[in-house]
């Protein structure tokens, strides 16, 4: 008990961090949207995570839902995600500078602001939109940070925690796996820079020890636990001679997405923070300044690459926003270093604070846009259901195959919003496009229409089809046994999933 009480000074920063994250996602929670996979899980109460080797998610779900049937218990998973992300954020600050929490709130509040991108970056918002998965995605972030609490000594405790952390990430949400090496490089660069003594060997030993344990953990997961997967993304590597060219190509795509997703203001602020990090790292260095400059630049590039590396090296990477939240961890880490200054160095806290505020504002904007888009989608789907009910062939007992094509398109409210950066489009898209089955699920399983079956492989000759209903927004056509509902909304261009 005494050991626990020794850290009771961390309660206040944890509560403040949780409050910041809760304010950020309150609009998402109030929107109450069944986001993507939530639609099917709400209807059938299944998990489906084991197919992606996410066994820890399934195990945690049994405890959270207290049943093998996973009913929708929103917003509890999202609230738990907020608390878990708050813990991970405080841990990250503690690893960086644990003594700061023993100071007054006016001093450590800047560190709390600096880590906001860890839990509220635009890329993390898709994770927090899931009424089922959000908590397990947050757990992956927690276990990416947790092992480094034990990194002061290269002993069995650190090795064990690093091994467990890596396995838990791989069995909850693999997108967080790059945060571990990112944090290792960040800590190593910090340690090297802060000591006059020749500690280069110790730092290299720390990096090598961490790398060996981490890679062994990944190898064990791959050989013993990972199920092969090849759908919208794969978990296999390209052929040996194609690994480097494919890796470079995929990394280039991820970097291009960051620049096309983010608003210009965000990019400018992040650019200022990156330059400030390298500049302050060099200025504060107790080593050779030229060497420090090189190490600062190298560390920055390496950390950024790690945000996407472990998806980019796959044969078929996942480019969805939920796969890119490592970028938020990168910004949080370098922001911590930037706000850690005295005197005139405190001016560098300004861009960090503005960026954190921008991310909170965007989170609220996205949450309200999500609600608008959901209302617009449901409005059209309800009209489709009414039209299907009025078609004479629906009255017989023959099972009809239904396929949904096209896209509902964006709500007029979304269309009228400024379209600087495509992040909002990419966040909203997963629930109403032909590339995902959730619109069809709503028509089939939430309408109550009998004798209909979802079959995305339905193909019909145009000359054999009868048009049962033609509207400005969609067409309903078929041949008596097969029905196609084709929406006419315009889909945005670019990589959306």
Brief descriptors of the model:
497 residues, 2 domains, five-stranded mixed beta sheet
Please write out the topology:
Blueprint: H1 2-5, H2 11-31, H3 38-44, H4 55-65, H5 76-97, H6 105-114, H7 116-120, H8 122-129, H9 134-145, H10 156-170, H11 179-194, H12 200-225, H13 243-261, H14 264-284, H15 289-312, H16 326-339, H17 349-389, E1 400-405, H18 412-415, H19 423-428, H20 438-445, E2 452-454, E3 466-470, E4 474-478, E5 482-487
Q: How many DSSP helices? A: 20
DSSP strand count: 5
Outline: elongated
- Give the amount of beta strand, in percent: 5-15%
Q: How many domains make up the 3D coordinates?
A: 2
Distance between the termini: 47 Å
Gyration radius (Cα, Å) is 25 Å
Please tell me the overall pLDDT: 89
- What oligomeric assembly is this protein in? single chain
Q: Spans of 5+ residues with little confidence (pLDDT < 50)?
A: none
Order of helices and strands: HHHHHHHHHHHHHHHHHEHHHEEEE
Residues in helix, %: 55-70%
Most strands sheet? 5 strands, mixed
Alpha-beta classification: mainly alpha
> Order of strands across the biggest sheet?
2-1-5-4-3
Describe the structure.
This protein has 497 residues and is mainly alpha-helical. The chain has 2 domains: 2-364, no CATH class; 367-487, no CATH class. Helices cover 59% and strands 5% of the residues. It has helices spanning 2-5, 11-31, 38-44, 55-65, 76-97, 105-114, 116-120, 122-129, 134-145, 156-170, 179-194, 200-225, 243-261, 264-284, 289-312, 326-339, 349-389, 412-415, 423-428, 438-445; strands spanning 400-405, 452-454, 466-470, 474-478, 482-487. A 5-stranded mixed beta sheet has the order 2-1-5-4-3, with helices on one face. The two termini are 47 Å apart. The mean pLDDT is 89.
